[in-house]
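Data card: per-record layout.
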Amino acid sequence: MAEFPLVLDTIGRLDGHAAEAEVRLNPFTYASALAVLAQWILANGLSGSYRFVDCAAEMRRYLDDVRFEEALQNPEIVISPDPMDWAVGLTRINRAQPTEKVTEKIVEILETFINPVPQDREALTVLIAEMIENVHKHANAQVDGFAVAQVYPERLKMGVALVDAGIGVKASFLSGDPSVPIAELRTDEDFLREAVKLHSTSKRQGHSGYGLYLLSELIGRNRGTFLLASGGCSLVGYRRQRKTVFDAYHHAPWRGTIVSVILDLNQRLPLSDIYREMPTLPDLETDDIFVA
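The structure for this 292-residue chain is written out next.
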């Protein structure tokens, strides 16, 4: 996850007003980074005006596997029915496309490896569904967002990334009706650190402020890694001494929001444990996870 700021720095140096783009990838580039690249291409109107240069054959095959070019050209959601296909290829997220199939596939993959108890499975389904829904629900973006998920079986890890090109976390707090005081918040890092706190939301009406807190705490307890990026900062969360902590990395600005997680498929996803330790729950609604 610490490599993500390097990716955003590289993309931040690209000319968004260019008529075409040449892209050079590392010999292997993770699906989450490809989702960010696809979002930049779509947001800058370059879907038909980019090409990969010096791209290794293995990387080209992987681009096909994750449906990179297909997703840029076609908003249709395509999910493999094969239970042994442990991936959700690059997928456009917009108001016109139902995303239940994406949620169910991600949960199906997690069940294959982790086998959560029924109450954890149900809560996990709600959390993932609302994460994905918020890509288009609160982003105020002019173009579709993207989702992608990939299992890396040799390491028994799973990556999930959700990306949009909307207004960003800071702007969402400043233009919304936040549940917390924000007068002392100044930088992108300040707003990101506020966004992952319990009960903190940029739109208090109808939102409890549990979404990003739940997600970061869940991934921390899973011994995975959580990333929230918006503007010129990325927060990387992980577990240390029985507590989820966040490191901040600064980079070229990203217009929008990125949530990316790496899960350890050897570990539990103990959502019910987190619920038991939280204050009394109102009707749970994942808030502006994608306030971008």
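Known properties of this structure: Residues 4-277 form a domain with the Heat Shock Protein 90 fold (CATH 3.30.565.10). Strands lie at 21-23, 50-52, 87-93, 145-152, 157-164, 225-240, 243-264.

See the next section for split statistics.
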